[in-house]
Amino acid sequence: MTSRRQVHLAAHFPGVNNTTVWTDPRSGSQIDFASFAHLARTAERGRFDFFFLAEGLRLRELKGRIHDLDVLGRPEALTVLSALAAVTDRLGLAGTVNATFNEPYELARRLSTLDHLSDGRAAWNVVTTSDAFTGENFRRGGYLDRADRYERAAEFVRLSRELWDSWKPDAILAYQSEGRFLRQDAIGAVEHRGTHFSIEGRFTLPRSPQGRPVIIQAGDSGEGREFAAAHADVIFTGHGSLEDGKRFYADVKGRLAKYGREPHQLKIMPGVTFALGDTEEEAAENAAAIRRHQVGPQTAIAFLEQVWGRDMSAYDPDGPLPDVGPDLSEGVSQGRVAIKDRGAVAAKWRAMAEEKNLTIRELVIEVTGRQTFIGTPRTVARLIDEHVREEAADGFILVPHLTPGGLDEFVDRVVPLLQERGVFRTDYTGATLREHLELS
Predict the structure, then answer these.
(1) Eight-class DSSP state of 167
(2) Are 363 and 239 contained in the same domain?
(3) Overall pTM surpassing 0.85 (yes/no)
(4) Do both 236 and 118 map to the same domain?
(5) Structural domain contains residue 347
(6) pLDDT tens readout for residues 55-86
(7) Is 160 in contact with 362 (CB distance < 8 Å)?
(8) Is residue 325 part of a domain?
(9) 340: CB partners within 8 A, 6+ apart
(10) Would residue 330 count as lying in a domain?
(11) DSSP H helical segments within 165-264, as ranges?
(12) Tens of pLDDT along 251-295?
């Protein structure tokens, strides 16, 4: 009998964006450690592979105004994860750290420290930026072109791995058995002269229980896909539908052979959301209510302004789209991924609004709908299994709409059904994140 493809699951801390419903009385702090601990412990109770933290290096602005509730704060990821290592036992701990505004030796050391503190559960989500607005918080500013940022990131990852691998696996045993001085060949010297980095020296930490941290990459561009195929262990994508997922899956997995890699060596895990109900109708109602709370009046106008490039604050969010066309002369949003071809997006939005008779807010809800899986727990379990079985994904990174208790219902009601289907672990069989992800 052929074994069923196993589902991999991770939990994303919601953070500051319009996924989170802040008006819900159950919504808590995203700074208090208790919030991080609650979500991480829930994910571990559900036998998830890892807990995932995003990063924000500058508060995002729209025409000089801070929005998106960024004022709630964005703690530094590796500090939070180091604290979580003490209150979890098996759960992987993944942090987003920017490869444009950090240095390899220092970051490799911080990640290796987390890997040792957690007994081999650390992961690094590699992100880049060519955004000069974000770069103003750093010495180098936004000096990197889009293509150059991936070149720097690739060199960064290669050098980090060289540092992590520079200690021989038995170096500590040699030290313990031979006295206070390590053999000269126990720790290799790292000498690197590259386009972006120049290093000569020895790393300060031995290899961790999993060898080195897991590498995650988030992105959908051709450059991002190629970077993931060459360097990543996990790719975090935005493809939630079955057909889009299958196309993305086939494309990225098909790139691995040129780098001497096998398909199982890269896990594809889209970020997804969910809305549950005791019936399909109740789940649909819950999803609609969540979407309406995610897109309040101010958020609806802010989204419109990102596309129109104009001050739209005078317009009623519950009224029709204005007759005025978009100003395409310059962007108005800073600290975000730029919207490509705003004119085409505006035309598409207008056609949709006219066809469905949508208000501004209803339109934004329509185009930013977040619930990927909607239904009873049994329906959602079936859909998740189907996506993995049909090779649209290897698993999913769940982004709940509530901080910190939004994952509880999924763990209590959906995970047991996945286990019942024989596609998700009933207990951890390994100790490290690499073992959870079945990475060789």
Answers:
(1) B
(2) no
(3) yes
(4) yes
(5) yes
(6) 877 777 766 777 655 555 678 999 999 999 99
(7) no
(8) yes
(9) none
(10) yes
(11) 171-178, 222-231, 242-254
(12) 999 999 999 999 999 999 999 999 999 999 999 999 999 999 888
